[in-house]
């Protein structure tokens, strides 16, 4: 039998202390990252209404984004890819730096936001990275469910076991997402969106107790017993995700294909290159044609000089004929010279 107590730290955060029957003290780190320090942590089975302002705003935003993910994940493909990268990068960096305790809260938030923006832009601009990360998140969600179920029978104390399972299943689901892009995107956004939305509701119900319980499974630390509504939230997750996947597949994703946008951009680039090559070829042909005309006229000019020099030696009848030919050739010479001048300029 264990005695569960709570102590307030010097910085205002609440911490869970578990005292076992042999007198040993175990203090897992279950500090809620975004909770207001002035609001005490709530660990009983009574629903608390003591919410922080910043925490409530974040929880409400998570709930709204969860609805967007769950029911419109594939339709708003670009926006969802950015949000997937942003949330994954920000949460991962935040939790890692928080565990190391090397920066103040403002520094942790700044680093997390910067990492989230960079990864979000990367997943939005490079489509395959966004698809892989969507599948990876689906694998992470599957591992979270497995770890919670396994914890009810046996406690995993080796940290590398959940980390290894996370990596293996995450990579497998990421590769499957690259192979079956639309199907895995619909399923992945539904599961991830349901998790985000329920995390927001979980804050208003029990101050994110179920979310912290899942995080403790990743860290392989001992947690306190959950309440009945914690398990209710956990049971609603797959049902909510299934409903979102059905609505996406039957309604919101019908007639939408993310590959068409990528294909249209490629076709526009190819058409632009073809037009430029055609214009370049026509310009070269025009220059060669004008150059040929100039060369031909220059030869005519030489022949006209010869005719002018021979004209006085010809009979009068021949002189009249050569005069007519000279006038017509002079007109061609002036036209060709004008064309050559236009091409040169």
From TrEMBL:
This protein's record includes keyword DNA repair:
no
Annotated membrane-spanning segments are: 51-72, 79-97, 103-122, 129-150, 156-178, 185-205, 228-249
Residue ranges for the region (Disordered) are 325-345
Q: Name one GO cellular component term.
A: plasma membrane
Q: Which residues form the TM7S3/TM198-like domain?
A: 59-249
- Where does the signal sequence lie? none
Its subcellular locations are: Membrane
Q: Which domain of life is it from?
A: Eukaryota
Q: How does it sit in the membrane?
A: Multi-pass membrane protein
Q: Which UniProt keywords apply?
A: Membrane, Transmembrane, Transmembrane helix
Amino acid composition bias (Low complexity), ranges on this chain: 335-345
Homology family: Belongs to the TMEM198 family.
The family database entries (PANTHER family) matched by this protein are listed as: DUF4203 DOMAIN-CONTAINING PROTEIN (PTHR31247:SF5), TRANSMEMBRANE PROTEIN 198 FAMILY MEMBER (PTHR31247)
Q: What is this protein called?
A: Transmembrane protein 198
Lineage of this protein's species? Eukaryota, Metazoa, Spiralia, Lophotrochozoa, Mollusca
- Gene symbol? ORF4791
């Amino acid at each position: 039998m264990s005695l569960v107590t709570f102590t307030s730290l010097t910085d205002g955060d609440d911490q869970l202390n578990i005292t076992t029957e042999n007198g040993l003290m175990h203090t897992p780190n279950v500090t809620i990252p975004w909770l207001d320090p002035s609001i005490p942590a709530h660990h009983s089975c009574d629903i608390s209404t003591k919410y922080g302002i910043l925490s409530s705003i974040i929880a409400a935003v998570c709930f709204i984004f969860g609805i967007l993910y769950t029911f419109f994940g594939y339709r708003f493909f670009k926006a969802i890819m950015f949000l997937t990268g942003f949330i994954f990068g920000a949460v991962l960096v935040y939790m890692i730096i928080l565990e190391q305790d090397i920066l103040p809260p403002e520094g942790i938030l700044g680093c997390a936001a910067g990492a989230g923006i960079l990864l979000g832009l990367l997943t939005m601009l490079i489509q395959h990275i966004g698809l892989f990360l969507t599948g990876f998140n689906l694998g992470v969600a599957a591992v979270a469910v497995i770890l919670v179920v396994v914890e009810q029978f046996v406690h995993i104390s080796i940290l590398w076991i959940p980390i290894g399972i996370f990596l293996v299943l995450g990579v497998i689901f990421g590769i499957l997402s690259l192979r079956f892009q639309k199907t895995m995107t619909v399923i992945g956004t539904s599961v991830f969106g349901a998790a985000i939305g329920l995390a927001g509701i979980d804050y208003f119900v029990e101050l994110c107790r179920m979310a912290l319980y899942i995080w403790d499974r990743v860290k392989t630390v001992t947690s306190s017993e959950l309440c009945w509504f914690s398990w209710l939230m956990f049971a609603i997750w797959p049902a909510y995700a299934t409903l979102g996947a059905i609505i996406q597949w039957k309604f919101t994703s019908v007639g939408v294909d993310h590959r068409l946008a990528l294909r249209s951009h490629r076709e526009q680039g190819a058409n632009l290159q073809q037009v430029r090559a055609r214009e370049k070829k026509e310009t070269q042909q025009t220059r060669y044609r004008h150059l040929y005309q100039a060369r031909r006229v220059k030869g005519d000019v030489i022949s006209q000089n010869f005719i002018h020099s021979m004209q006085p030696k010809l009979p009068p009848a021949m002189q009249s004929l050569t005069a007519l030919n000279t006038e017509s050739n002079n007109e061609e010479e002036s036209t060709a010279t004008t064309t050559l001048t236009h091409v040169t300029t």
